[in-house]
Amino acid sequence: MTEARMPQSWTEFRASLRRLRAMAGDPTFRSLAESSERSAENPSVPMRPFSHSTAQNYMDNRNTPVGTQWDPVRSVLICLLCHARQGELPVEPPLDDMVWWERGWQSLVDGSAPRGRSPRRPDASVAAEPFGAWDRTPPDGSLLGVPWAELGFGPTAEPAHLAKLFVIIGLAEEVGAPQLACTSAELLERWARAELGPNHATSLAARYAVAFFAQHVRSPAAALHLTGKLLDDCARVLGEEHPMTRRVGLLRAELTWRCGWLQDARAEYARLIRTGSARHGPRDRIVLSARRGGAMVAKARGDWFSARDLLADLVPDFRAVFGADDAATFETERAYALAIGDTGEVQPARESLVELVERATRGMRPDHPTVLALRRSLAALTWAVGDEAEAVRLAEAVAADGARALGAEHPSTLESLHLLAVLCTDTEPEQARRLFLDVAEAREHNLGRDHPDTLSARHGLALVLNWLEGPAPALRLLDEVLERQRRVLGSDHPSTLGTRHNRCLVVHELGDVEAAVSALERVHEDRERVLGVAHPSTLATLHRLAMSSWQLEGPEAARARLEDVLARQELAFEHDHPAALETWHALAMVVRALEGPSVALPILARVLDRQRATLGSDHRATLQTMHNLAVVTDESLDPRESLPLYEEVLGRQQRLLGAGHPDTLRTALNLALATAGARGLAAARALFVRALDLHRIHLGASDPGTLHAQRVFVERYGSESA
User: Among 135, 255, 288, 636, which residue is least crowded by beta carbons within 10 Å?
Assistant: First the structure.
């Protein structure tokens, strides 16, 4: 590449960045990030703070875009040039020319992200909520989050044919037709530009609508690309304090968060809060919305307790400004209840949502989109507290009401069906498969095959296939989903990382433990780099890595990893968080292998006591601990003491999961074995026969579990008895 030639690819652009860094003395990425934070405090410096991982990823040797906004790229360049000047190091032209850099970057953006395609961000981090939050009401409950009439345009504006397009956009949004809404907004933008000029408020409002709907029918990254230029134009034409400009800034912050750029999103929300509070007061509607966005970013970064406290402070302000029965207030209270659940208080969180649903239903109809969202969250928390049958019933009712009121393919209805499929995966896998297929087909038709919502449904389908047909077909579908996610979202996006994590588990099931452990190591490194060492997702992968490495490296290695997880959980969580109790449970089983059942017994007993207190006796995690405590009791003490535990577990599993669930079948067989040891073969024969019959009925005669139960029976009673 000659000195004066513009970069012809992102690979060349990144190579130029690495060359500039070398000329600046090879400063560390962390020192660049620290310089950006110091410089950002000076209002005269056009600087945005960035993380060290952002700077590092900008310089990776890839042919993928370096961001979708110029500002953070410019900030990295400013820091590099400042390091060169401070060290009196020469920088060869044109690498010292900011205009040259911007022209090259813009040229590549224009070439790699044409209209209708989403620019891809390889270093995307984590989004705070799953995609598909279509029915989430805008902060002030108005169309698209903008009060059109107050700004002098919209359905009441002139000319009349443009006003009618605003009506069409609103109706398309109401019935859940994002493609129609986006197409109508694009038509409105084209007509308004031609008739009123590109700088007219109506033209700018139409562009806002296009960006708003692009996040649904394309991707948040595509919408963010449109929003960045719109914000500059609104500030230039309308002024920085115009309501439209401020709302575009709010949209850009949210899209930045949904793209996974958490450090950038936090900075944008902080700026909106700081400037808005100083000029309009802390209870300004946009300031309140930015405060809620900041709380959601804190949740995405794994800081669950800060998110909970921020939302607790916000609830009274939303009630005072918007009203207790406003959709925006209900949404904020819903987020607060879910944040309580995140911190481990799932029972109080569910109780809050029960009250919230009752209050919302009194003020709105039961099938209002806001009420449906509240009811979905209640179903999810009901499942989290262990009442799986009631959770499924609630999810079925939400889906039925949504289909009747909004339509079978409304995004809210599909979100309810998706949740129902997740809840049915263990207990009704065939139903879950049908639901995931239906949701994936509808989303592909409405949003496209590569849309994140479509990929999410296919990801769920892969997990059900693993249950029904085994790991091989599941792995094929996961590989397809993963390839599309990497292309559309980037390798470090939360959805991509989640698929990579689950793919490792499937590989482990196929028997390639070494490959699974190696892949989990890479997922853990990426999550630690992107999210931090104490993020719940990072800890979940580290926990799984410990359990997978047990088979490959032995129990000592697994114990070391689990103790590391516990140390990090003590810093991230409060006492007796369900995730920490799960790690203690796993550690007890490792201790059992290393030091014997008598040492593991008190650890498991304490875990069971705490799970009963925090989750309830019917929670799946509680039942698993109770089962393993029965196993360890059978090994370490008088076998008769394990029988009451086995009987209690079996009774609860039969009631909650059904007689044919694999967990139930395993407990039934273990109860028969324990009874044989405690009371003799004659006393256990009926239990063995019943367990074997249930295996044959529910799993089939050739299933490995059935064959194992049959071998156990024959070993004790002879082949003639089988």
Answer: 636
Q: Taking the chain, what is the end-to-end CA distance rounded to the nearest angstrom?
A: 77
Residue 625 contacts by C-beta under 8 Å, 6 or more apart in sequence? 585, 604, 607, 608, 611
- Look up residue 709 and give its amino acid: A
Task: Kindly state the tokens that stand for 314.
Answer: 């916000």
Task: Kindly report, residue by residue over 136-165, the tens digit of the pLDDT.
Answer: 223 332 333 444 444 444 544 557 788 888
Residue 222 and residue 119 in contact, taking contact as beta carbons nearer than 8 Å: yes
Q: What angle do CA 488, 490, 491 make, to 5 degrees?
A: 135
Q: Which amino acid is at 94?
A: P
pTM of the model: 0.71
Distance CA 153, CA 163 (A): 8
pLDDT digits (tens, 9 = 90+) for 262-284: 778 888 999 999 999 989 888 89
Q: Is 426 helix (H, G, I), strand (E, B) or coil?
A: coil
H-helix segments, 510-596: 513-531, 536-553, 555-572, 578-595
pLDDT beneath 70, residues of the chain? 1-6, 40-47, 64, 68-69, 99, 103, 106-107, 109-158, 574-575, 637, 719-722
Q: What gap in Å lies between CA 190 and CA 48, rounded to an integer?
A: 33
DSSP state of 385: T
Shortest CA distance to 309 belongs to which of 295, 322, 297?
295
Amino acid, res. 663: D
Residues in the chain: 722
pLDDT of residue 721: 58
What residues contact 717, with CB distance under 8 A and at least 6 apart? 681, 685, 688
Instruction: Establish whether the linkage from the previous residue to 429 is cis, with ω within 30° of 0.
Output: no
Position 711 scores a pLDDT of: 83
Q: Return the pLDDT at 466.
A: 87
Which token pair is 680?
């003799």
Q: Which fold has domain 143-260?
A: 1.25.40
- The residue behind tokens 């094929």 is 476
DSSP notation for 626-673 = HHHHHHHHHHHS-GGGGHHHHHHHHHHHHHHT-TTSHHHHHHHHHHHH
Strands (E), 370-451: none
Q: Is 674 exposed, middle or buried (0-12, 13-18, 19+ CB in 10 A)?
A: buried
Q: Are 448 and 437 in contact (CB under 8 A)?
A: no
Query: What type of residue is 74?
Result: R
CA 438 to chain centre: 22
Domain ranges of the chain: 10-112, 143-260, 660-722
- The DSSP string of 47-83 is -----HHHHHHHTSS-SS-S-S-HHHHHHHHHHHHHH
Cα–Cα dist 299/313, whole Å: 15
Write out pLDDT tens, residues 396-441: 999 999 999 888 888 889 999 999 999 988 778 899 999 999 999 9
